[in-house]
Amino acid sequence: MGAHFQIYVNLVQETENLEWVENHLCEAYADFLCYGTGIIWVQEDDILNDLDGHQLLENYGSDNPAHVYTKMKAMESISGVLQTRTNANGKKEFKCPDLLVEHYKPFTCQLQQWISEHALVIVPVCALVVGFSFLVWKIRRRWYLSTRGEELYHQVCDILEESALMSKRVNAECEPWVVASRLRDHLLSPKERKDPVIWKKVEDLVQEDSRVDRYPKLVKGESKVVWEWQVEGSLSSGRMRKKVESSKLKSNDDIKEHFDKERHELKPEPKILMF
Questions:
Q1: Residue of higher predicted confidence among 50 and 268
Q2: Measured distance between the N- and C-terminal CA atoms of the chain, rounded to whole angstroms
Q3: Which domain holds residue 214?
Q4: Stated pTM of the model
Q5: Domain with 164 in it: what CATH number?
Q6: I want to staple 38 with a disulfide (CB 3.0 to 4.6 A). Which of 31, 58, 105, 245 is the partner?
Q7: Per residue in 217-230, pLDDT tens?
């Protein structure tokens, strides 16, 4: 029973020693490939010296038969797993195989090496993706500025026309003009105010509209640019749409009323039968 147990202990120690040496050499080689700080080839004497200080063998003396046997079996196993060569001094050296060392590289190192190996493909693809994304963003922004600018422009026209009409009424106290900056702050959200391009689009549309006068005016001691709607001009687009919609509704009601009247007149009167 004691002999079998000793064989089992030796096998466990041999396996642990092989894993320890493999990890030690492969980690050092991986550091060299990634950061240039490790080593590649390790002499057999250095490995034997490291095994003497390994915790699995430190309980045995260097002359203990179990100690010598375990080191011998460990070196045989290492020779079958690791890459070996003989240097110029006739010393045997060991190195972690290239395929095995890949498993010991950190993820960041593997990622950097993969990028460097595929740089000729990654760079054009990234440039294409960035360029396409920028083009899509530019198109969407142009569409947004155009749509939002026209929407704000129609609101400006409605407000200016309403102010002009109210100022013409009897005993009206409001002014026919509106300060452009106040109109901007009223219509734009706080986020939109940080983007001057949106309101610039509105100003361009207003400048092209002959129904709106733009001139400086002294308001509370400060010079302000004001906009004023010309009442004698055409109706604004908002009021025109409302007028057209109202006319259509009225026309539809007249047609329906006329159709009901004709159907009532054509309906035959009931006959009374005499018996």
A1: 50
A2: 133
A3: 145-239
A4: 0.52
A5: 1.10.10
A6: 31
A7: 998 888 999 999 98
